[in-house]
Amino acid sequence: MNSLITLSQTKNNLIKALRAIPPKTVQLLDENQSSFESIDLIPAVEEDIEQLNNFWEFLENYYHLKVIALVGMVNAGKSALGNYLLQREESEVFQEAPIRETSDAQEAKLDENTVIFDLPGLGSVLSDEDDEVVKGILNRANLLLIVLDCNYPIPKHLYEFLKSDQVIKNEALQKIIIVINKIDCLSDLPDHIQQKQIKKYIDFLYFGNKLMNFSGIDNLFDYEIPVVNFSVFQARKRDNYSQEKQLRQEINKALSSNSNDMLYRAGYQLYQLVGKYSPLATNYAVLREKQNYSYQEIETVLNSMNEGMQRLVGQEVENLASRIRRIRERCFNELNTYATTSAERFWQGEHFQRKKNSSSSCKDRYKKEISNEFINFTRNLQSSISFIAQNLLGRSFIVSLPDSESIRSALEKSIYEIWDAFDDYFFLDKERNAFDYSLKQSDQEMNKASDEISNWVSEFVQDFNNTLEVKCQELTLFQKYGFFKEQADSLEQFFEEFMSIDLVQSILSNRSDSSH
Ligand SMILES: Nc1nc2c(ncn2[C@@H]2O[C@H](COP(=O)(O)OP(=O)(O)OP(=O)(O)O)[C@@H](O)[C@H]2O)c(=O)[nH]1
Ligand SMILES: [Mg+2]
C-alpha cells in the first residue's frame, strides 16, 4: 500500500508536469499520426490541478477514516437517516425539516473509523450552490447512501448526478447503497399492493423507461447496487427490525472491504490523471520522430543536391581546362605555320605581309574562341545546376553567376602573348629570348586565369548555397520540419517532467513486461 508521503510526492510531480503544458499544443487526430489539431489544454489542466489539490486537502484530514455521504433530493430524509445511523434523536445531530433544511455539508463521527457527511439536498431552489457542495464530497466518499423518497420516483437531476464523473462506477473504489425511504407512507395499503408498488419503483430505478428515454441505473455501474427499503420513522419506533438489520449489514459490508481505502483512491486518482495525460507524452514522441524524419528527408535532398553540384562542377572545370589547353596548342601550331624565313623577313614582300595578316587574324580568332569557351563554361554550369535545383526546389530557383570579366581578359592575354612571341620573332626579327619571354608571359596569364577560375567557382558555389538556404525556408519540407520542431520543443519540458514521475515509470515498465 502506498503511503501518503509517496503519493503526495507523485501528486506534486504530476502537478509540476501538468504546469509545464504549453498554452497551445497539437493533438494527434488519427492512428496514422498524419493529422493534428490545435488545442488549448490549459482550462482542463487548471481544473484537474484544482480537483487534485482539493482531493488532497480532504485526503490529509480523512485518509485514516471511512467516509459515508448522504445524497439525495431535498426532503428525502437524509438528515433523518443520518441521525438514525448515529443512534440519535430527531434533529439531535443533523437538522431535519419538511422544507429544504441542510444547506451545507455537516459531518459527525459514526465511530472511531467512520465519519458521516450529511449533504444538502439536490434540486432545491438554490440548487447550483448546493450541487457544488455535494460535488465536493461526492467523489471522495467511500460509501454513498443514496436516499430516495418512495413517494417520488428517481428524478432526472439525481440520475444525471449518478451518471456524472463525480460518482465512481467502480466497486473497488466507491460503493453505493440505495435507500428507499419513507416506506411507512405505504403502510395503509394492503401488503401485496405495497410489495407491488415497491417492485415497480425498483424496476423503474434499475431498468428505466424507454418511452421516457431513461435507461435506469442498472448499466451505469460495474456491480449490482444493493437497494434497501426503509423508513426512518419505523426504525425509530423499532417497528421493522429486518430493514434495520439489512441496512446495517449492507453498510458494514460496503465499508469492510478494504479496497475502497482512501489512499487507494488517491492512487487511483493519480493513475487516472496519468492515463489522461499520457497521450500528450505520446504526442511529444511522435512530433520528435516526425521532426527527425523530416530532417532526414531534408538532408537527403541537400546531400543529393550537393553531390550533384560537386560532381558537375568538377567535371565542367576539368573539361574547361583541357579545352583551353587545346585552344592554346592549336593557336601555337597555327601561328607556327605562319613562320617566316630570314629572307622573307629581310625582303618583307607579299609573302611576309600575308603571313603577318594571317598571324594577326589568328590571334583575334583564338582570343574570341578562348573567351567564348569560358562563357560557355559558365552558362553550362548555370543551366545544369539550375536544372538540378529547380527539380528539387521549384522553378523559381535562380542560380546567379559571379563576374568573370578579368578571367576572360587574362585568357585573352594568354593568347595574345603566344601571338606576341611569334610576332616578335618572325615579324619584328627580335632575339630568340623575346620569343621565350612572351611564352612565359602567356603561361603566367594562364596561371592567373586558372587561379581566378577557382575563385570564381567557389564564389559561384557560395552564392548557390546562400540562395539555397533562403529558398529552403519556403519549402514545405522545411516548414514541416519547423512545425514539428516547434511543437515538440514546446512539449519537451512537460514530457521530461511527466516521464520522470515514478508512477509513469512503473506503468510503462508493467506495460513492456506484459507485452513480452
Ligand atoms: N413519513 C416519513 N417521513 C420522514 C421519514 N424520514 C424523514 N421524514 C421526514 O421528511 C422530512 C425531511 O427530512 P430531512 O431528514 O430533513 O430530509 P433531508 O433529506 O435531510 O432534507 P434536506 O436537508 O432539506 O435536503 C422531515 O419532515 C422528516 O421528518 C420517514 O421515514 N417517513
Ligand atoms: Mg437534511
Automatic annotation (TrEMBL):
InterPro entries: GTP-bd, P-loop_NTPase, Small_GTP-bd. Keywords: GTP-binding, Nucleotide-binding. One of its GO terms (molecular function) is GTP binding. It comes from the Bacteria. Residues 68-182 form the G domain. This is GTP-binding protein. It comes from Symploca sp. SIO1C4.
